[in-house]
From TrEMBL:
Its EC number is 4.3.1.3. The lineage of its organism: Eukaryota, Metazoa, Chordata, Craniata, Vertebrata. It catalyses: L-histidine = trans-urocanate + NH4(+). CDD domains: PAL-HAL. Keywords: Histidine metabolism, Lyase. One of its GO terms (cellular component) is cytoplasm. Residues 5-79 form the Par3/HAL N-terminal domain. It comes from Hippocampus comes (Tiger tail seahorse). PROSITE patterns: PAL_HISTIDASE (PS00488). Belongs to the PAL/histidase family. This is Histidine ammonia-lyase. One of its GO terms (molecular function) is histidine ammonia-lyase activity. Residues 589-610 are annotated as: Disordered.
């Protein structure tokens, strides 16, 4: 009987199929039944008959038609992803002040519907008093009788983006963020328009938004114009039922006012929110993966001594060292691998292992800096002009300029790239028998088998590509709109390439995790610490040991998915938390710039290489 593994939100579910002539719709519904059965609240799904989803093959992410038969499009043991839409009973109430990057990413995933907390200022009188053109035509007075035409022309002419469309998830984020900004009440939007946008979001009726075309000032004009164009009933839109179709068939026509819909930094910020959330997730898991590699390479924990890091108390550095100790402390988690080389004559390890707190640490601190910028930007009014109801006037300003998120996302790319750069060097050490004391490329019968040889090449290629992508886009500026917009942020490219860098980092660390687990096979029957054994077990639940050469890409993809779902962090976090809880601090002075809770001291009794 063929079986399929279906990913629903945060769970992998095995679905047996007795009749291969069943459809993809049947497979999705069967997976949802199992998902709902395991949840006390049915997983937030109101009714199975109302559940809507898009199915994709995990390998290649190719869309599967709901009416296709399983036999025609899937093979036994295939992995399938279900993208859910508007299944949650709960809603997120947007007020323009309290949305977080985590909330925004969850809205993109379809985990919540949207409501607004109050009625923002509609101010039709003031909006209709803005009767000039824009950009170079800002001094051209437009008759009030032609205001409707002006607004429509504005959206149509600015819909000039090119390239592939944003994914439905990212378009949902863009739309949700635009609604959040409008809900602040300084945009002059009509209540009718805002309600229509919320209705479109909750129904997952999403405009075709090309990913290229913004220079990041005056806001993200082209992407937001495409977002508004679909809401006007023009161009193309996507919905779970129709796929891509003519917007007038997906959405009833929506008009006015154009400028309030297209001016702002929401494209940069929504993509930036995803980038920083994924960067934070992979940075935490990078510490766990590096700790496992250190075990396989028989490294020492002495470099993670808390006294060392208290003398250079950068928060990220101190936190990373603490995580290493919580995973490797022999007093808390005895390791047979550590005991096997406890009395070796090696004094210190390579930089790629002993300098992890310093290298990973600055990545963590930079991610936190960027997260603060993005969360501020998420709840900022970035329109122009700004409408002030209490003063009864509109004022032109420069909040639309994308320099803040653009610069922050350039920093993010540089910082998170370093996690892949140092990881690739650890992969080299794992694969190189002169450095690891393990079989070459982590496979028996070398020559007949190539093992991880080309997996390491893939990691090197991704790291090299990142070096180009890390060149800052925000150092560039080209004058546009006949020199009216004479300095721009190039934040759209900063956001898109930051996402690519983060994805490459995830993939490199997936390769390191695979390699480290393969290295464990050659150290058996010795066992590592309890938390790292749990990580090993997690990986082996989706990828079997490498006995001889086989198709490797699916293995990398499966472990990449574990990292995307933060499964590695979920497995290790309880041990990290418990280590901190059980620690009794020594009475010694603490630097005022360190964490308020001093990090535990390193193990003294059974430290590696003593």
């Amino acid at each position: 009987m063929p079986r399929f593994t279906v990913h629903v939100r945060d769970e992998w579910l095995t679905v047996p199929c007795r009749d291969s002539s069943s459809t993809i719709r049947w497979l999705g519904q069967e997976a949802l039944k199992r998902y709902m059965k395991n949840k006390p609240d049915d997983g937030g799904i109101a009714a199975l008959k109302d559940a809507r989803f898009v199915a994709r093959r995990c390998q290649g992410l190719g869309l599967l038609d709901a009416d296709d038969t399983i036999d025609d499009v899937l093979e036994d043991n295939d992995f399938v992803e279900l993208d859910m839409f508007c299944l949650a009973l709960q809603s997120i109430c947007l007020d323009g002040n309290s949305l977080t990057s985590t909330d925004l990413v969850n809205l993109g995933r379809g985990l919540y519907k949207i409501t607004v907390s109050h009625h923002p200022n509609t101010l039709d009188g003031l909006v209709y008093g803005i009767t000039t053109g824009f950009g170079k035509f800002a001094r051209t007075v437009i008759p009030v009788s032609k205001l409707k035409e002006l607004q429509e022309n504005l959206v149509r002419s600015h819909s000039a983006g090119v390239g592939n469309p944003l994914s439905p998830e990212r378009t949902r984020m863009l739309l949700a963020l635009r609604i959040n900004v409008l809900a602040k009440g300084h945009s002059g939007i009509s209540l009718e328009t805002l309600r229509a946008m919320i209705q479109a979001f909750n129904a997952s009726c999403l405009s075709f938004v090309p990913e290229k075309g913004t220079v990041g000032a005056s806001g993200d004009l082209a992407p937001l114009a495409h977002l508004a164009l679909g809401l006007m009933g023009e161009g193309k839109m996507w919905s779970p039922k129709s796929g891509w179709a003519d917007a007038k068939y997906v959405r009833r026509r929506l008009r006015r006012p154009g400028l309030a819909l297209i001016n702002g930094t929401q494209m940069i910020t929504s993509l930036g929110a995803e980038a920083v959330e994924r960067a934070q997730a992979i940075a935490r898991q990078a510490d766990i993966i590096a700790a496992l590699t250190l075990e396989v390479l028989k490294g020492t924990t002495k470099a993670f001594d808390s006294d060392i890091h208290s003398l250079r108390p950068h928060p990220g550095q101190v936190e990373v060292a603490l995580r290493f100790r919580s995973l490797l402390d022999s007093d808390h988690h005895p390791s047979e691998i550590a005991e096997s080389h406890r009395f070796c004559d090696r004094v210190q390890d390579a930089y790629t292992m002993r300098c992890c707190p310093q290298v990973h640490g600055i990545s963590n601190d930079t991610i936190q800096f960027v997260l603060n910028i993005i969360n501020t930007e998420i709840n900022s009014a970035t329109d122009n002009p700004m409408v002030f109801a209490e003063r009864g006037e509109t004022i032109s300003g420069g909040n639309f300029h994308g320099e803040y998120p653009a610069k922050a996302l350039d920093f993010l790319a540089i910082a998170v790239h370093e996690l892949a750069s140092i990881s690739e060097r650890r992969i080299e050490r794992l694969c190189n028998p002169s450095l690891s004391e393990l079989p070459a490329f982590l496979v028996n019968e070398g020559g007949l088998n190539s093992g991880f040889m080309i997996a390491h090449c893939t990691a090197a290629a991704l790291v090299s590509e990142n070096k180009v992508l890390c060149h800052p886009s925000s150092v560039d500026s080209l004058s546009t709109s006949a020199a009216t917009e004479d300095h721009v942020s190039m934040g759209g490219w900063a956001a898109r390439k930051a996402l690519r860098v983060v994805e490459h980092v995830e993939q490199v660390l997936a390769i390191e995790l695979l390699a480290a687990c393969q290295g464990i096979e050659f150290l058996r029957p010795l066992r590592t610490t309890t938390p790292l054994e749990k990580v090993y077990d997690l990986v082996r639940s989706v990828v079997k040991p490498w006995i001889k050469d086989r198709f490797m890409s699916p293995d990398i993809e499966a472990v990449h998915r574990l990292l995307l779902d933060q499964k590695v962090w979920t497995v290790a976090k309880p041990y990290i938390d418990k280590y901190q809880t059980e620690y009794i601090p020594e009475s010694r002075p603490v630097s005022p710039t360190a964490f308020s809770l001093e990090s535990p001291p390193s193990p003294r009794k059974r430290c590696r290489h003593d």
